[in-house]
Amino acid sequence: MAKKESLLPLKTLFVSFHASNTILISFLPLYLQFRGLNGTQIGWVLAVESLASILAQPFWGYLSDKYKTVKKILFVCIIGLLIGSTLFFQMDTLPTILVMGALFYFFATPVGALTDSLAQRRSVELNVSFGSIRMWGSVGFALSSLLVGEVLASFGIQYMGWVYFFFGSLALLTVFPLKDVKVESQPVKIKDLSRIVKNKPFLIFLSVIVFITVTHRMNDYYMALYITELGGTEALVGVAWFVGVIAEAAVFALAGFWFRKYHAMIFIIVAAILYTLRWFLYSAVDDPMFIVALQFMHGLTFGVFYTAAFDYVTRLIPTFLQSTGHLVFFSVYFGLSGIIGSLAGGPLIETFGGNTMYIFMGIIAAIGTILLITYHILPYGKEITVRDRE
């Protein structure tokens, strides 16, 4: 019973933050389209998010490790998120949207990574699976996708900012009772970051998974436009995300049962193969309901791939640099991949349509799968646990 009580604020934070994140992932492209932006311009705005992520995530992660607190950094970031979102959703021209978007995302993008980093450490402290905590983010995302989809379909996409502010405020309230983590280690200095920069298995792994994560981010950004291109509505977009994230939540919830059976790289490679199959299937449909039906594969791809990859990189990162390493991982997974995915996906879907975009994604994922298998076979593919107390 004590474990449940001690994790309740953290689980509530996952629900509320990922409920707000639903809006950015599922509906922001539709909102920007409502503001008059075309596919290429939408790609620029989404690229700003990813660029801010690359810069912000290591910055906030370093501060978290330096001052040995995740909770206080989360508090600052969520305050900045609320202020930045208020300004961002008031803008109606491309230049102002880009500028305010950069400010907003500088605070918003690290929240998910910091929350996951906190959950990973708490799971070790309490001897519970990371997935059993992380699944609550998927639950929040799924419930919000249904609710927000219906609200925006009924009242209009222009009210999206108010809905985001509501869920962001709930996330802020959950930070106050949150239990911070304690890291007993030497103080972190700038020169300690060389431990990450010189970590070849870590860097090579990040370079390889980009081929998979680019396709994941491209789908995040443009699935809503593809569904509307096929004749679907905002409400159907919400249903599609609900189906996908419920499948993801189930994978996270059962991680304690399936995850330890094999080497993490086996799960990563299997998920990469399923990503490839998923995108080719998406490219072949001509009815938006087929996208909804195929969304169960989101759990088998992102749920498995993310859980295994997060665990794998955790073993490569020194304990006293966990937040920094995790946020570098996030900056590649969601930042660098997001820049490539947004800038490539916008022109593709605008010029050739969603079917061609998903064929392109399938080819890229297939290349990534081959590289992952090669990485696993070569010496740097072997799991190496970094000892920071040598």
From TrEMBL:
It is found in: Cell inner membrane. Keywords: Cell inner membrane, Cell membrane, Membrane, Transmembrane, Transmembrane helix, Transport. The chain crosses the membrane at residues 12-32, 44-61, 73-91, 97-115, 136-157, 163-181, 202-219, 239-259, 266-285, 291-313, 325-345, 357-378. PROSITE patterns: MFS. It comes from the Bacteria. Pfam families: MFS_1_like. The keyword Transmembrane applies. It is a multi-pass membrane protein. Residues 142-390 form the Major facilitator superfamily (MFS) profile domain. InterPro entries: HcaT-like, MFS_assoc_dom, MFS_dom, MFS_trans_sf. This is MFS transporter. It comes from Oceanobacillus longus. The lineage of its organism: Bacteria, Bacillati, Bacillota, Bacilli, Bacillales.
